[in-house]
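User: I'll paste a sequence; please echo it back and then give the predicted structure.

Assistant: Echoing your sequence first, then the prediction.
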Amino acid sequence: MMEPRIVNLKPKKLIGIRVQMSLTNNKTVELWQKFMPNRKDILSTISSDLIALQVYQPNHFQDFKPTNEFEKWATVEVASFENVPLNMESFSLEGGLYAVFDYIGSSNDSSVFQYIFGTWLPNSIYELANRPHFEVLGEKYKNNDPSSEEEIWIPIIEK
């Protein structure tokens, strides 16, 4: 299917909002509806890209169930944490090795994640690292559109 780029990410500063959720209690739409009207209040943005970030418990994927809870963030990257708007939080994304998949397709199509975790990762020289996963939603991102483009960043370490 698709081969990722392997990138050694430098740390990033993010500002946004978060919610606890699971796949069976998916609150992604509500999260972004709450974030988007207020993103203009974030002053030190580095780009117009949006970053959707997930923080999973260490055993989330080993004992995977759709009811497993995780933290989901709607964020943008910033130069500093000096002016964090009210009702928002800062998040320091640590650096490290990531597999970056350039994905074209609907954000509702989970087959890309089935490929990443079920085919690519087990057959690669890498294993999942315990760091946040995220998607970069740039100017070619169109929610639920089959022609939408995004980058899927999966944290990895060598086996």
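The chain has a mean pLDDT of 95. The longest strand covers residues 12-21.
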